[in-house]
Amino acid sequence: MNTSWPLSCPVCTAPLDAISVEAGHGGGSQEIPGPLREPCADGAAAARSLTSFRGLACAEGHRFDAARQGYVNLLSGRGTRFIADSAPMIMARERVQEAGIFAPLSAHLRGPVLDRLPAPLAVDPDQSPLILDCGAGTGHYLHQLLDAAPTARGIAVDLSTPGLKRAARHRRTLALTWDLWQPLPLRDHSADLLLDVFAPRNVNEYARVLRPGGLAAVVTPRPGHLTELREAGLLGMRSEKLNQLLDQIAPALGSPESIDRITSDVTVNPELAADLVFMGPAGHHRRREELCEEAQRRGVSQVTVDLDVSLWRR
Description:
The chain is built from ten helices and 15 strands. The chain is an alpha/beta fold. It has an eight-stranded mixed beta sheet with strand order 8-11-10-9-12-13-15-14, with helices on both faces. Strands 1, 2, 3, 6 and 7 form a five-stranded antiparallel beta sheet that branches. Strands 4-5 form a two-stranded antiparallel ribbon. The longest helix is centred in the middle third of the chain and has 13 residues, at 103-115. The model is unreliable at 23-51 (pLDDT under 50). GO terms for molecular function: 23S rRNA (guanine(745)-N(1))-methyltransferase activity. This is 23S rRNA (Guanine745-N1)-methyltransferase.
């Protein structure tokens, strides 16, 4: 089974290989290159025998060590002008996800979206399909896709260290700290499915890294999404997103293969309503406690989830 990772060094563009440590018979250890985690033939995730992941390195000597929690920071020495989501923001997102607010979206990604992958890529274990989650956060949607496709592997890309700590927990996920506006550290035509949920979109890079026949699934909010929170003054008014998305992606990937609407009404308490606001950009300049008090004062008890899932085929 092919379990190498199609990564490019962000310094020199040479191939990046995973570095592991293998225990020696005399109690010592030896660093060896190899796959990070190897999917078993029966779909169970298992680490390589007597090895542990240490990081990534290229033949030119550029090395990126893995954090104790398993993610790798590829931005070392480069930096970014963008502000990553904080630990409290990530915790709010995790509570929203665990509450099932976006469960219909998860079900759609695991079902109709995954079913649209070309059959040889979806069922042939030798192909080891690669799912790339851009702006992965906690890896919530990526993990669900990997559980539904047990021969696949995933790469989670995000700026947020607290999010990547959670994304790295899945045995078939490689979590990378990276700025989506910079060239992605992947080789050309390497991803079978690219996922973007409410994240920035570097569309030229998306087209470059997708395999021929591969899919890009982009999730955007419709005007009615979380309208109750907007009417309560907890969120700003939303502009039209779908037309902006179509105009943005058309030069790189043409017209979408499909656009599906996901909608549901969800009961929330003030804490969960506050989390829905705090997990997004508002979390950088609002206090969750104030949001919770305002949601309770305004009597927010239900929210509308209203999303577009747009698919492009490379």
